Amino acid sequence: MTDTIKNSVENLIATVKKNPQLANSVFRASTYSENPGFTVRSEVRGFTVPIDEPRELGGNDTAPNPVELLLAALGGCQEIVYRAFAAVMGIEIDSIEVHAKGYIDLHGFLGLADVPAGFTNISFTTRIVSPASPESISQLAALVEKHCPVQDTLTRPISVSGKVELMQPGDPAGAVEIITTAV
To answer: What is the distance between the alpha carbons of residues 107 and 109, in angstroms, rounded to a whole number?
Structure first.
């Protein structure tokens, strides 16, 4: 498997070097909430990812909530980037675990105080089982910290914009844009 990862990463590097315009990618996800509860269906590349809230937050506890998925995305991205760079560097890794925690003050989400609605702090521990030297793993970790897309997205300001379109039931005229947001 390591050879497959190494070949894939090296081929992608060669392709992007040869055709730099291919480096600009767009990823997409759509979510759908068609019931009065908090259960949401997310569609990503043909995969369905359920989203819900725990019972104590008013959900049915049928799936992770959005902030838990954000932590899972961070851990998953870290593990993938570790595997990719380890393969290219020739570092053998038996297993990787990432344990992430996000700290949130629900006052912001609930509109009870003027505090951030999202995480105020995220921490994680990465556990690697490998016969590699501590120095090799330290070099690998530095590369991952620098090149993990989800960690990069979470640790620097980025532009986020959106709009709200109102669709009236049975109205063939289409959507009416009512709000545009920019952060």
So the answer is: 6
- What's the CA gap between 77 and 72, in Å, rounded? 8
At 46-74, the pLDDT tens digits run 999 999 999 998 999 999 999 999 999 99
| Residue pLDDT, tens place only, 83-114 | 999 999 999 999 999 999 999 999 999 999 99
3-state class (DSSP) for residue 123: strand
Q: Which two tokens stand for residue 65?
A: 């909530």
50 in a structural domain: yes
Return the closest-CA partner of residue 67 out of 11, 113, 121, 21: 121
- Which residues lie below 8 Å from residue 36, measured CB to CB, with a gap of 6+? none
Residue 32: give its domain's CATH number. Answer: 3.30.300.20
Alpha carbons 138 and 82: distance in angstroms, whole number = 11
